[in-house]
Amino acid sequence: MRLKGLWQRLMEKGHERTIRAKKNILLSMVYKALGILIGFAYFPLSITYLGEEKFGIFLVMVSMVDWFAEFDIGIGNGLRNRLGEAIADDNEEEARGYISTAYFALGSIFSGISIIAVGASFIIPWADWLEADPSLDRQIMILAILLFGAFAINFVASMIYQIFYALQRIAMVNLFGLITKVSFLALIILLMFTTEESLILYGAAKTFTFAFIPLAIGVFYFRNEFNKYRPSLKLVKRSYFDKLFSLGFQFFIIKISMIIIHQTNNILIAKFVAIEEVLIYEAAYKYLSIFLLVFVIFTNQLWSASVEAYRKGDMEWMKNTVKNVVRIWFGTVLLSAFMVLIAPLFYKLWLGEKIEIPMAVTIIVAISVSVTNWVNLFNLVVNGTGKIRLQMYAWVIASLLNIPMSIFFATTMEFGTVGIVLGTVVSMIPLAILSPIQVVMILKNKTKGIWDK
């Protein structure tokens, strides 16, 4: 009874939107914690199965394919906002129209992109480009074809998650992510006991889990709970596309800029430092991404809730929420400092003698993740209001600075992997300054000019 009373005081007190957020955050933390454990498990297993060079190649290929997975011209994020607005207005017909149009547009886009990417995979000299063993060229080519196909299917199929985001049911998306990770881990273990090392089989395992699981989830929910939102060609309209695209294109530019900043590190490290250094960076990032994921759990709920709150003019709720999330950010900074201190012990227990990770790499990755969290905290509030023009310009500037600065620090200054990540940190400083200023202006209803677009 005491536990029940404590639960009610903690979880069932406050605004309905706040209660919903608390429950989603708690469940998301459980699912994310389990997902982190699984992620830590399949990292060393993957090194054991593939070896350092092949696993490094796989990580670089995934980073590269991630670029192509962003060519949705921002329709995914545009759908998240427009769908959230339609649901807040109780307009089911408009909600279904947005969903139908988004699926049609993304299906058309990714059909074309996947055909071009798969065709190009046959003529690209992969081994030469990655400076890998020439005997691996055919395996890398087949891996590229598998990954391009998988990510194309995944991106369209994952549109089902935007409905959960719009309904502020973030925990369900994290549950689906956990199911995907468990499936991938199970297949890795199966491969280890039944086959010799193979990039192709490993890539096939990635393809199956990350492409077909969200596809199955979409089919199930559209036949059941989300039947009223089921896509239909009859509801595909130019007017819906224009509304998705007008906001979505700005999100698209932001996403491309973010990809340049956050997803090029593996490629830059492979080209300007060494392919073996990719594993070192990825291991440090996976370890320190624990507090990144904790923060994402809180802020992901903030975006969708902000759409509803801003639509209904509930500025007081938004102010209180931002204050609370800023406190959480300071908590994650303390957590990251503690994780840096115990990193050598953790690496030894986790990876044994497989790879050695310098303390300097751990520190700079911790700083990078902290800066990213700070920027994302404020930008997610801005995303909920749709006033993202300034954010878009700031991300573009940061992306233009990122690669030259990373190369400069890595080669001219001879900082190596540390220099690549340092370039990311420096390029994001303008965003870290402008984003909180805009949020304060929005919350005080004092936005004008570029701050209000």
Give a short overview:
The chain has 453 residues and is mainly α.
Secondary structure blueprint with pairings:
Elements: H1 2-11, H2 16-50, H3 52-68, H4 75-88, H5 92-121, H6 126-130, H7 137-157, H8 159-166, H9 170-194, H10 199-223, H11 238-262, H12 265-272, H13 275-311, H14 315-351, H15 359-385, H16 389-412, H17 417-427, H18 429-443
Sheet with the most strands, sense and barrel status: none
Quaternary organisation: single chain
End-to-end distance, in Å?
Answer: 51 Å
CA gyration radius, whole angstroms: 22 Å
Q: How large is the count of helical segments?
A: 18
Structural class by sheet pairing and helices: mainly alpha
- According to DSSP, the number of beta strands is 0
| C-alpha geometry | globular
Beta-strand percent range: under 5%
SSE ordering? HHHHHHHHHHHHHHHHHH
Helical amount: over 70%
Mean pLDDT across residues? 82
How many distinct domains? 2
Q: Unreliable segments (pLDDT under 50, ≥5 consecutive)? A: none
How would you sum up this structure, described in words?
- With 453 residues, the protein is mainly α.
- It has two domains: 41-262, no CATH class; 264-453, no CATH class.
- 83% of the residues lie in helices and 0% in strands.
- It has helices at 2-11, 16-50, 52-68, 75-88, 92-121, 126-130, 137-157, 159-166, 170-194, 199-223, 238-262, 265-272, 275-311, 315-351, 359-385, 389-412, 417-427, 429-443.
- Helix 4 (75-88) runs antiparallel to helix 5 (92-121) and helix 4 (75-88) packs across helix 11.
- The protein is globular.
- The mean pLDDT is 82.
